[in-house]
Fold each of these.
Amino acid sequence: EVQLLESGGGLVQPGGSLRLSCAASGFTFSNYAMSWVRQAPGRGLEWVSVISGSSPSTYYADSVKGRFTISRDNSNNTLYLQMDSLRVDDTAVYYCATRVGGYWFPFDHWGQGTLVTVSS
Amino acid sequence: DIVMTQSPATLSVSPGERATLSCRASQSISNNLAWYQQKPGQAPRLLIYGTSTRATGIPARFSGSGSGTEFTLTISSLQSEDFAVYYCQQYNDWPPLTFGGGTKVEIK
């Protein structure tokens, strides 16, 4: 069974940093692209970033480019999102997501999410 | 960027009735369109991909159609567990991947 478990969320001040993790199991992690998607309170879904499976290529939404860094550790089946220079409008539930068994998209597996709150 | 526009924002439907949700892309996305269902406090769940292919375990009452810029999700006979928010997503032209703003299906 595919499982994705995010961690690392919490309260941080504007301008601060946070690193999210997503522990994956139940599939060959290194074979699949992984993404982060966020959802601000009461709002819709916003794609944040994607990283390919191996020899990683990375892509970002303009709203986070230059501030967030996606990475992965295939030996430990873990996805990361390093978030720097955080802003109040980065407040959201952050989900890791993937498509297992096909192209990179759409997302057939999601984690339960981790809440990031940026506030002074 | 491709803008995805969903309508209506809220759809009030009685159990057992048919629901029709619309999604429009700002430019052609071929058939690279997915639909997700999200219930409060839960992660989204993939319903439909490739415009009309049901994801694993999705009941046959969910169907998708369309092409180019106009797409539809139809729920043939609403069950109590179907009341939720539905999002469309294009994955034809990225980055960025883009989602619609959502349609909330509520009990009439």
Amino acid sequence: EAGVAQSPRYKIIEKRQSVAFWCNPISGHATLYWYQQILGQGPKLLIQFQNNGVVDDSQLPKDRFSAERLKGVDSTLKIQPAKLEDSAVYLCASSLLAGWVEQYFGPGTRLTVT
Amino acid sequence: AQTVTQSQPEMSVQEAETVTLSCTYDTSESNYYLFWYKQPPSRQMILVIRQEAYKQQNATENRFSVNFQKAAKSFSLKISDSQLGDTAMYFCAFDEGGSEKLVFGKGTKLTVNP
């Protein structure tokens, strides 16, 4: 079974530029999560999708971050414009269905904002 | 808000020895799940072990076991017969009542020395 795929693995941009990350969850997984992991900290949930609907985006900085999950499969997370403090690893995870506690993580995208 | 505290930023152990990583959490709920995740330099979060709060028996997965003290809100991870491949960041995580919202601690960096 293929795992959660993410791209790109690394991205370097200048502040005020925009960037997008892509995630493909495990086939058949209904729930998808985006986490932000700042250096030296644990991951923090940004947004949770159930199929193509948003379940929780309470910690997503909506003035600059946006996410979508078209057709309930792939997802993209966008930052526009980026700030220095957005430098982090962005992790995508998926789980089989609602109430299924085990989450499977992708390899993450390391974003550096200069 | 739920919090997860890992009081050991770094630990080291000799190969083949045993090491214990500490985790405490704060919640007023009685139904929840606890997890230990491993994050090697490749950045991919890998589930090591999980514990349901309603189960009194401590979870075990091969060389990994937990000491779950519900009253003390403590959830430590014991790694027996440590191997070089165990070198990684270890994160304790909490999921309240199967809400699917993982709250992570700041992590413990474990180094296994040959």
